[in-house]
Every structure is written in C-alpha cells, then in structure tokens.
C-alpha cells in the first residue's frame, strides 16, 4: 500500500514538472537567421487617414538552439545614431512577429516622445531583441533597419467653440466642446443656440492656440499656431439654433441655421425684482423652454420680456389677468395694453415657459431628499442602495463627498419608486463634469432623456446640488 502511494506521488510530481515545461517551451526553432523586414525605408505619414496602417514591421523567429525553450521579443525604436539609449522599448512577449503603427499613432509618437518637428523627416533605427526563456544572458539581436519618416502637423482629437456668439463667450477655460462624429475621422458636430456675434475654434481648454479660424471662404478653415497673428472669425448675424459641422482634415465647415426658437433670451419682469429685467435660464435640453426658479420674498405681479430694458417690446402674458399658480396654463404674446400679468404669493417657485406650445407652469416648490445612483457610485445601479446626499443650511442645497469610480452617475429623489422616481440629469449624454457650476435637467417620473454624467477618473469628489436652481458642481478634490 505504501509503495502504491509513493508511486502516485512520484507520478503527480512528474506531471507538474511536465506541465511547467510545456508552459515555457516552444517548438524547436532551429537556428534560422533572425531578421526583420520593412515594407519601405521611406514613409510619409498620411494626415487624411489617421487610423490607416503606416508602418508594419515583421520578423522571423529567433533560435532557441533546439531546446524547445520559449522566446520573448522586445521591439525597439530610436533616432538614428542614439544607439537605442532612448526611444521606445515595447515588450511583446512570446509568439509575436510583427509591430504595426497607424498614421496618427506614429505621428504622435514622433512629434511627442521623439520631439520631432511637424513636417520634418525623422531618421529612425529599429531592431528586435529576442530572449530565450530559462537561459540566462541568452539574447539575440536582429540587424538594425533604418527608416525615414515624414511627419505632419498633429490634428486634434478635441475641438471647442469659442466666441461671443457661443454659450460660454470668450472664456477659454469654459469653451463649448463639440462631439466627435463616429466613423468620420477628425469630424466634429455641435447643435445649439448661437447669438449674434463671432466665433472660432480652439483645440485645448485654457489655450488660445492652436486654433482654427475662418479661411478664405465662409466654408473653409485656417489652422493657426505659434506666432501666427491671423484671427479672422466666423460671424453669426441672427440669433437662433444652429448646427455646426467641421472636418479638420479637409479644413471645411458647414453652419446651418435650424428651426430654432424665436428667442434665445427672455427676462423675468415683476414686483419681485422691482420691474427690472432678470435673465431666465434656457433649458439645457429644449431651447424652446425657459426657467425662472427662485424664492419670492414679495411675490406679486410679473410678466416675461423679450428685449432687455424695453418696456414697449412684446411680453409673454397670461390669457387672463391675475392668473396664479398652475400647470400648462395658456400664454399669449403682446405689447402695450392690456398689460396683463400673472400674480403669485411669496414662496419658492419653479416657473417654466414653453414658447413652442405657448404654455407656462407656475409651481410652488418644496425640496426633497436627493440620492446618487450609477456604476460610478458605491450604490451601483441599485435604487435600494442609492446614496443619500447631506442637507445643508440652505434647504434647497445638498452635498456629498466621497469616492467615485470610473463610470456613470445621475440623481434620483425617491428610491422607493425606483426608475419611476423624479431624476436630476446631465444636459447631454456622457457629460464630463466641468468642476464648476453647470445646469441640470429635471425629469419627472423617470429619466427622459436618460443623460448621465461620465466619470473618467477615479478619485475623491465633492458634489453640491441645488434642487431649486437646478444647478450642480461635481468637482474632483
């Protein structure tokens, strides 16, 4: 019996040893010449095809001298004459016999890591180092191959609208980001309200250059960098809703005025603000909808102006003078008499005017609890585990500070109703928090549209949310 157990132990040990050997072995590679091959020794990178293959380097298997030992490969690239003291060293592991660079990838590598000037010719050397696993100091190095590569000016992967015609004016730290168009390299689009004024494009927040300005025509772009003082801008002559499409490769632009609202600005005018003109907030989702959410200490009469400071211009008014609170109330627009107005008592109100349907809702507001939910939060997507925010001395403001993971985030008011709760949502899908105050969209009885914030960097965040003004700050600490 003891002999049987001893045999079993020996057999198990042998199997383990053979398995380990199998993990480290490769087929006998013999002693063939270890060399690399290039498709060409002269390459000009193609800015118009950033995802296209620019350079494919292949090599034969190195020799393991008949040992069946595994072979690990490392690709090296450096400037000619640097003897591979710098550059890049890419450990590829076993069974890999090629290295492929795309146009934009190689261009960014050369103008970044290698500090090459855009538009210059770069002399490079490449080689592959093979190491036989399990054998100390056994390395084989391929013959060095030389390549000449012509770079181009890098084309940005981000683009921002900036100017007094745009939502955020000339603040280059808050310029309006455009969306990259899927499937169209270096194409961007944006749709929203533009005011009468000027605009151009920048590629990096907080930096004026590089920039794209108006070219020789209204449909062309000019790239501006360095000491270039050229600063011609695109002009918007009529406020409205526009779609802007940009192709950075072709350096073309298309600006189309859509069927947008008649007004991009409206003003609360009433007893509460001594009949001054206080700007209303344009809804971040619907440009036809305007909000005025505030605590009214005096209440009284009000109407809604269309031209700041002009009492003779058109005003939005109630259909019946003295109308109070209510939802989906009829609205008319007129100038002069009869000077009909709404009338409310002191209190907190949310006033929402839809100039497309010509309806207004004047609703008294009572704050509620607010909870975080999303896979960026500790709760995940479970409403029952939603994370409650903390109250502050301001009854309309809640705060939360803690760790957010990479992922999505939104806010609900009643976890017991699950997905039928009211939600505070981002102004657009996959919205990156700005770290400063931004507008939210409030959706009753469900998420519509289901816009969430996207947290791209894990860390400690502080969130401050005002239910009344529907504004939020999500700031990484």
From TrEMBL:
Sequence ranges assigned to domain Outer membrane protein SusF/SusE-like C-terminal in this UniProt record: 369-467
Q: Which Pfam families match?
A: SusE (PF14292), SusF_SusE (PF16411)
Single GO MF annotation: starch binding
- What is one cellular component GO term in this UniProt entry? outer membrane
InterPro entries according to UniProt: SusE (IPR025970), SusF/SusE-like_C (IPR032187)
User: Which intervals hold domain SusE outer membrane protein?
Assistant: 24-128
The record's listing under Gene3D superfamilies reads: 2.60.40.3620
Protein name (Swiss-Prot/TrEMBL): SusE outer membrane protein domain-containing protein
Source organism = Capnocytophaga haemolytica
